[in-house]
Amino acid sequence: MLAGFALQPALAGDNASPTANSNASGPESPDQEKHFFEARKVADWVIDSADNAGMPFMIIDKTNARVMMFDATGRLQGSTPALLGLAKGDDSTPGIGQRKLSTIRPEERTTPAGRFVASLAKDIHGQEILWVDYDTALSLHRVVKGTAAEKRDQRLDSATPDDNRISYGCINVPVKFYERLVSPTFSHTNGIVYILPETRTAKEVFGSYDVGDRQVNAAKTLDNSPSGLTDPQDK
After folding, report:
1. Helices (H), the chain
2. Is residue 15 situated within a structural domain?
3. Which of 53, 77, 88, 130: disulfide with 69, CB 3.0–4.6 Å?
4. What's the CATH number where 141 sits?
5. Residue 111, pLDDT score
6. pLDDT digit string, tens, across residues 11-25
7. Residue 130: which of 184, 85, 198 has the closest Cα?
């Protein structure tokens, strides 16, 4: 089992970190619950396979509109609600990173699924952000004010993820979460961001596997194979 990574309350954000919002409880529906477990399975796979290459990593669960931050050893550092792309979907429209925001249609405003090598950088206004995928202009940053009608802060503070789909695709997180966890964690290193799919499976996107199943299969193989300790004279 992954160090420090329990479904409740760590994923819920209740005790995972002082930076985690306390407004969110556990999954509200079977679909949400399935994705909480999916996040845990992906995190276990990351460490078991060393897919993070010794770097800190982040898992973004779009169904539950949640960001989970891990250190390089897989210990959960904090969890928080997030704002994500307005449209559901796991792919980016080709060339979207070079287009003006005003030209991006509502159905194109997706947060794509995938594995990304992320690093801190400055945006055009000199504000620090976490660049997730430069080609598609996908980043994670402090929640932006937006328009009054968008009510982004209120959306982050709501009790469910139902109203957290509002951005053009970027991931908005609370200011305190960004400044206390994201910025320090990525200040001197790159990291890996795993954005969970919502129209495909994690195995299809990451090539991940269920660590528990692998361990069971390995044990069965060991039980059914020669021990390798037989005295050659007995043969």
Report:
1. 30-49, 152-157, 175-177, 183-186, 202-206, 211-223
2. no
3. 77
4. 2.40.440.10
5. 98
6. 333 334 333 333 434
7. 184
